[in-house]
Design goal:
Length: about 625
């Protein structure tokens, strides 16, 4: 996110005829010929747009006296209730507006509004705020601000917790942003302060603002606003996700923007390159017009892809599935063209819970997800707790031992934790088995290192099934397949033995990279050493893939690299056919694979497996992606 000082390609260099004419006329009239001014920020949402800027500014945040004590806590609680109700009405109104949006934006934004709606319900946030009013005697505004900030900080790695890195950091930032956003909304509603209006923005304008909240983004009408540029924010926050969903080209975190831009100035926004050009010269404008046309064509093509099968040009069929972290993502998955869920992370059931989720509650959630897949398989991973993932419910129940470990990622986590406390596993197995009446399911065990662990878990699985049958629950003759995550070097190296015990395998490249390279994925300190394309990791992927194929076991990849269109050809060349990824990656991966032949992928994999450095691997896959 650096800021480059102004340059003037519009004044120097080759100038097209149209540009020469315009400038000459301007000079004739004595108008100042403006040099274009280029700034850089986070490339947030693809696409190029040109338009007049429309500045949207909000009044200042209210002053809050954090030290003041409430004379009447009951009155503060009542004010809070009113502000919550008002906020709920606003979120509902935002939801009503969804009908006006294009299908895919509707879904992404709907998911976020659903999160907001839940936070405004009987949530941990609300409980915390009420407690601060009751116990500390705070004014409602101070209680809201303090509680929202405390929860946001906890997401980012509170006391005794490591700050998340990589993808986890981005997700944590988003969660933190959700708490802050709801906090700000409540505070404004407590003070009955107005919100910014987007109704009066001119059609075809580029919205320029210091900061855009996700709920503001939900108010943007993509048929009026052609691009968004902000001084604050970043490409992984919720606003960014929403702008991507709306298909509005966007560059966020453009330092120095507000000081440079003026209302009505022409601006070119390149959301793919992360650049904005204020008062562009004719060369820049001509290039931008080409970019606008290319972007429109690309969107149309991706939309058409959703309905096309995922197969190589040489005919081999692939399976592209989605990873799911929250049920709210379900509509996105349906839209993405994914054929089922390759990894349902069940940690969300535990993360904000004060008590352990019970069998009925879990069953209801799994049933909702499985039913939404309408016949496509849902792979449910039993809770992968410990390491960088913390749960208040498990800690309160005295079940999370991570605190005793100097090295939580190597301690009592994943399946180890579940086998030490089989009641958690029994409840979860029972809920999944009951929910399996709603459609095809697979059950997956995390963090496996030995065949013995799988056998132990399978015994529990069958015991739970017997108990359910005794209770009169109807289960089919064969239970849903029980498989494993291959995410430790031990699991990959012992692939043959493990594949004899497990009915399927899914390679978790996020953890596999961490354990293979001895690099904590949650530590910013060593983030530069974290390389999923390290040849050591690739060799383990190859080893376990070949082992699974020898044992006729289905194998997939569900780590982040499964959604990287540059890497998927290599994985195909290594023998993989099934990939589970974030829903939004499915169409792009599909586009790439449909143009590939298996023979090309195999040759790429052969070349990659000869080299010994990450840089060489990266150069080879980049050259392949560039068609070299
Ligand atoms: C998918 C994986 O699991 P998680 O990221 O949930 O730990 C992985 O480790 O690659």
């Amino acid at each position: 996110m650096k800021t480059t000082d102004g340059m003037s390609s519009g004044v120097s260099g080759a100038v097209p005829a149209e540009g020469r004419g315009r400038r000459a006329r301007a000079a004739d009239r004595g108008t100042r010929v403006l040099a274009e001014y280029r700034l850089e920020g986070d490339a947030t949402a693809h696409g190029v747009a040109i338009g007049p800027t429309a500045m949207a500014v909000e009044g200042p945040a209210p002053d809050i006296d954090e030290a003041a004590r409430a004379d009447d806590p009951a009155h503060e609680q009542a004010r809070l209730t009113e502000a919550i109700e008002r906020s709920i009405r606003q979120v509902e109104r935002l939801r009503d507006r969804l009908a006006l949006l294009p299908e895919d934006s509707k879904l992404e934004i709907g998911s976020l509004l659903e999160v907001y709606r839940r936070m405004l319900g009987p949530s941990r946030l609300q409980r915390g705020i009420r407690q601060r009013i009751a116990q500390d005697g705070l004014l409602a505004e101070a209680a809201v601000r303090q509680e929202a900030e405390a929860l946001a900080q906890a997401m980012l790695g509170g006391p005794g917790r490591p700050a998340p890195a990589g993808e986890d950091a981005a997700a944590a930032q988003r969660r933190a942003g959700e708490f802050r956003e709801i906090g700000r909304r409540l505070v404004r509603n407590l003070g009955q302060m107005p919100f910014r209006s987007f109704n009066a923005l001119p059609v075809g304008a580029v919205l320029v603002t210091e900061q855009l909240r996700p709920s503001d983004a939900a108010l943007i009408d993509p048929s009026r606003i052609v691009a968004v540029v902000t001084e604050e924010g970043g490409s992984t926050d919720h606003t960014a996700i929403m702008l991507r969903a709306l298909g509005i080209p966007a560059v966020l975190a453009v330092h120095g923007l507000m000081a440079r831009v003026r209302d009505g100035a022409t601006i070119v926004v390149d959301g793919s390159a992360g650049t904005v050009v204020i008062d562009p010269g004719e060369d820049t404008l001509a290039a931008a017009r080409r970019g606008v046309a290319d972007y429109a064509r690309e969107r149309q093509a991706l939309g058409r892809l959703r309905r096309l099968p995922a197969k190589l040009s040489s005919g081999e069929k692939l399976q592209l599935q989605a990873n799911l972290e929250l049920p709210a993502e379900l509509p996105l998955i349906a839209q993405s063209g994914a054929s089922g869920i390759g990894l349902l992370r069940t940690e969300f059931l535990f993360i904000n819970a004060q008590t352990m989720p019970d069998e009925d509650g879990q069953e209801a959630v799994y049933t909702e997800v499985i039913a939404a897949m309408a016949g496509d398989t849902t792979t449910i991973r039993v809770v992968d707790w410990g390491g960088e993932k913390q749960s208040e419910a498990l800690t309160r129940a005295g079940l999370a031992d991570a605190g005793d470990n100097l090295n939580p990622a190597l301690g009592v986590r994943g399946l180890r934790l579940l086998l030490r406390h089989p009641a958690i596993l029994e409840t979860q197995f029972a809920a999944i088995l009951r929910a399996s009446a709603a459609g095809p399911v697979r059950v997956m065990l995390p963090m496996v290192t030995s065949a013995h662990e799988i056998r132990e878990a399978r015994e529990i699985y069958h015991r739970v099934a017997r108990r359910l049958r005794r209770r009169g629950v109807k289960l089919g003759d064969t239970l849903p397949p029980l498989g494993i995550m291959a995410e430790t070097p031990a699991a990959a190296i012992m692939g043959d033995a493990l594949a004899q015990e497990a009915e399927f395998l899914a390679i978790g490249t996020n953890d596999l990279t961490m354990y293979t390279l001895a690099v904590d994925r949650a530590s910013a300190e060593v983030a530069s050493l974290y390389h999923p394309l390290h040849p050591a990791v690739l060799r383990l992927i190859q080893t376990v893939t070949e082992a699974a194929l020898r044992q006729y076991r289905p194998i997939s990849v569900c780590g982040e690299i499964a959604g990287d269109p540059r890497v998927v050809p290599l994985l195909i060349g290594l023998g993989l056919r099934s990939f589970s990824m974030t829903a939004s990656a499915v169409p792009r991966v599909k586009r790439v694979v449909r143009a590939l032949s298996f023979e090309d992928c195999r040759r790429l994999a052969h070349r990659v497996m000869q080299v010994s450095g990450v840089d060489e691997v990266t150069a080879l896959i980049d050259a392949f992606a560039a068609g070299e």
